[in-house]
């Protein structure tokens, strides 16, 4: 058994079920990436794995014990979460925000130890925000701010780190910065990482383990990106016709979407061309004709 | 390390077994507010229609005064002063906690209907049951707590809870205001006068038992809230981030809400509705300390200072018929807050 897994969990919010009887394992020491179409329950699954959302049925197991049975601070010493939406209080400095990541290691009368100082300094050095310590978070650019939030999660010094769409709202170079940092955390510092990503090519490049979710929170495939990321899977999960080529830089699978065929145009020679199947559209997908595969 | 990573001073005791992070500005603001309370206390005990020297007040406090000074100090001035300190601190902390939980400055108990609900409870006690002071206080306590439960239950659910709580609270507060007016019109004249007098909010004519009851509440609840201040500041990041950092979000929020509501209801039960203090005092404390977190202790001291000074103003400037203290809290607190905010916003845009 792995350190962290979800067993037959049913996830959802009041009156709306996102996933039913979902089971996933996070392999130890992996860089696991969860992909899937919008609203398929990726973030919800991540929230349940981090115990910030209670499953309606089933359980998440951390180190052989139901995660709900731990004290909150104990969970926060074993796994950290970089949530998608977090609000920085107005007027807070970068250093103070990163320092909040130390909360699970502190007590009411022990608010700042040498360990705290070292962990915060290291987290800020890793994420390249050490120079910003006394700046206000409000004044930072989006890319800097995301690195600060990441530093806060790193300061928590948890062996397992969950990241909910860490690259959203970042330009391509900042996306790569964040992903390279994650790869380093995984490879050099031995952290187990779980990230939700939208970009399949980035997922294929950086993940050691891929979990593809289909709409309705169903696992479509799991395994190494090389084995999992195929034309069939992308068509199946996203309803998107595509070609999968080796990435010229890394050799990992690279997804190249096909253009939808226009009315009256000559029939495409290649298989898998879906009329009207453009980029995956949220809320659609029922009864849409998907050819090929 | 050349530049410190985090703000504030570090206090270390017992070889690092105890370490506290303290903001110098918070300490300074708290100290100045405490000084204002002390000076205000000395002025209010010694001046008035029957001036006393400090020595006379001191003798009276240790039980060696004359009958006249005992009446003036122990029955007139001291209860009023103690009540002002307690109510000021309680309302300010209640406001600070509720504003932080709702992430909205308008989320204070006097804006979101909790105080109005307490008034409704008191009026029902006075008008319907002909209750005396004790019954009125109980009515106010119940009314405030029930109103808070209704507002919190209705605003529960997903999404931006804070704004929803503020809007629902304003709606319920408006409805209760109408109920309050209606209750007064149904009463016979003398009862209506009593009820109207209660509604003005006043620190006089409160007996020691009522003051003690509020005192117990304050002594128990304030430390609980002070101890939860760090968790409160983590909740400001959002529910999920706070949960990921090891805060038991549901339980923490419930305890904070209960304590804050109890403080607001108990203050209203003891002194009637005192407008604006719960809104203004935490905002004043937060802008003066420039803290990025709710500052509960400075808020408490600012609230106490504001109410002591306001009460002095209405009793000494307008004697022999003092104005209701609420008028002064509105004027002093409101104007001061406007000045602070204008300066703050001007400063931030340039």
Automatic annotation (TrEMBL), chain A:
Tree of life domain: Bacteria
Record field: transmembrane: none
Gly residues composition-biased segments: 284-293
Domain ABC transporter per the UniProt entry, residue ranges: 4-241
Pfam families the record matches: ABC_tran
Membrane topology category: Peripheral membrane protein
PROSITE patterns for this protein: ABC_TRANSPORTER_1, ABC_TRANSPORTER_2
Main location: membrane
Comp. bias regions, Low complexity: 265-283
Localisation: Cell membrane
SMART domains: AAA
Annotated keywords: ATP-binding, Cell membrane, Ion transport, Iron, Iron transport, Membrane, Nucleotide-binding, Transport
InterPro entries: AAA+_ATPase (IPR003593), ABC_transporter-like_ATP-bd (IPR003439), ABC_transporter-like_CS (IPR017871), P-loop_NTPase (IPR027417), Siderophore_ABC-ATPase (IPR051535)
Entry GO MF terms: ATP binding
Region called Disordered, residue ranges: 265-293
Name under which the protein is recorded: ABC transporter ATP-binding protein
Biological source species: Actinomycetospora aeridis
Lineage: Bacteria, Bacillati, Actinomycetota, Actinomycetes, Pseudonocardiales
UniProtKB/TrEMBL annotation, chain B:
Protein name as annotated: Iron chelate uptake ABC transporter family permease subunit
Parts of the chain that traverse the membrane: 27-50, 81-99, 111-131, 137-154, 166-188, 208-226, 255-279, 291-309, 321-345
Location in or out of the cell: Cell membrane
CDD domains: TM_ABC_iron-siderophores_like
Coiled-coil annotated residue ranges, if any: none
Entries under Gene3D superfamilies matching the protein: ABC transporter involved in vitamin B12 uptake, BtuC
Keyword line: Cell membrane, Membrane, Transmembrane, Transmembrane helix, Transport
Membrane topology note: Multi-pass membrane protein
Similarity remark: Belongs to the binding-protein-dependent transport system permease family. FecCD subfamily.
UniProt keyword annotation of Transmembrane helix present: yes
């Amino acid at each position: 058994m792995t350190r962290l897994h979800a067993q037959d969990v049913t996830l959802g919010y009041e009156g709306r079920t996102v996933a039913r009887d979902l089971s996933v394992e996070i392999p130890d020491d992996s860089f696991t990436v969860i992909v899937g179409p919008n609203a398929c329950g990726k973030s919800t699954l991540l929230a349940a794995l981090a115990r910030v959302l209670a499953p309606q049925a089933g359980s998440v197991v951390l180190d052989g014990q139901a995660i709900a049975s731990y004290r909150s601070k104990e969970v926060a010493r074993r796994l950290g979460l970089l949530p998608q939406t977090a609000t920085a209080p107005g007027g807070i400095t970068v250093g103070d925000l990163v320092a909040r990541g130390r909360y699970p290691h502190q007590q009411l009368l022990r608010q700042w130890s040498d360990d705290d100082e070292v962990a915060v300094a290291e987290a800020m050095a890793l994420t390249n925000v050490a120079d910003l310590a006394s700046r206000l978070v409000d004044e930072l650019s989006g890319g800097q701010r995301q690195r600060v939030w990441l530093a806060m999660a790193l300061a928590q010094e948890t062996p397992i780190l969950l990241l909910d769409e860490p690259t959203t709202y970042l330009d391509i170079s900042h996306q790569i910065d964040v992903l390279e940092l994650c790869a380093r955390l995984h490879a050099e510092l031995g952290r187990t990482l779980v990230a939700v990503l939208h970009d399949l090519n980035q997922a294929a490049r950086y993940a050691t383990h891929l979990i593809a979710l289909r709409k309705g929170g169903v696992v479509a495939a799991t395994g190494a990106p090389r084995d999992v990321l195929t034309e069939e899977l992308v068509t199946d999960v996203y309803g998107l016709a595509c070609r999968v080529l080796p990435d010229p830089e890394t050799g990992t699978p690279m997804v190249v979407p096909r253009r939808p065929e226009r009315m009256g145009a000559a029939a495409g020679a290649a298989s898998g061309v879906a009329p009207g199947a453009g980029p995956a559209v949220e809320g659609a997908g029922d009864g849409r004709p998907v050819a090929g595969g | 390390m050349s530049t410190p990573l985090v703000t504030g001073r570090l206090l270390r005791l017992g070889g690092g077994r105890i370490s506290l992070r303290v903001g110098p500005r918070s300490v300074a603001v708290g100290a100045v507010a405490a000084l204002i309370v002390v000076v205000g206390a000395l002025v209010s005990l010694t001046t008035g229609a029957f001036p006393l020297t400090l020595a006379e007040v001191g003798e009276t406090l240790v039980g060696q005064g004359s009958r006249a000074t005992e009446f003036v100090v122990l029955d007139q001035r001291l209860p009023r002063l103690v009540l002002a300190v307690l109510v000021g601190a309680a309302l300010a902390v209640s406001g600070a906690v509720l504003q932080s939980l709702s992430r909205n400055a308008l989320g204070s108990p006097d804006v979101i209907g909790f105080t109005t609900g307490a008034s409704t409870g008191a009026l029902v006690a006075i008008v319907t049951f002909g209750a005396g002071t004790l019954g009125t206080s109980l009515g106010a306590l119940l009314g405030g707590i029930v109103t808070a439960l209704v507002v919190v239950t209705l605003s529960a659910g997903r999404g931006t809870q804070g704004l929803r709580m503020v809007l629902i609270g304003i709606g319920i507060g408006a409805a209760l205001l109408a109920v309050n007016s209606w209750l007064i019109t149904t009463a016979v004249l003398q009862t209506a006068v009593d009820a109207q007098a209660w509604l003005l909010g006043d620190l006089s004519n409160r007996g020691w038992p009522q003051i003690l009851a509020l005192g117990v509440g304050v002594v128990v609840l304030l430390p609980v809230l002070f101890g939860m201040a760090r968790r409160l500041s983590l909740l400001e990041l959002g529910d999920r981030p706070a949960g990921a950092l090891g805060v038991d979000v549901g339980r923490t929020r419930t305890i904070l809400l209960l304590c804050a509501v109890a403080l607001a209801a108990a203050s209203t039960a003891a002194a009637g509705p005192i407008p604006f203090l719960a809104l203004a005092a935490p905002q004043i404390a937060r802008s003066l300390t420039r803290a990025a977190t709710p500052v509960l202790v400075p808020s408490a001291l600012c609230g106490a200072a504001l109410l002591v000074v306001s009460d002095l103003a209405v009793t000494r400037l307008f004697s022999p018929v003092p104005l209701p203290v609420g008028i002064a809290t509105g004027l002093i607190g409101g104007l001061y807050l406007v000045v602070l905010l204008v300066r703050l916003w001007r400063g931030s845009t340039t």
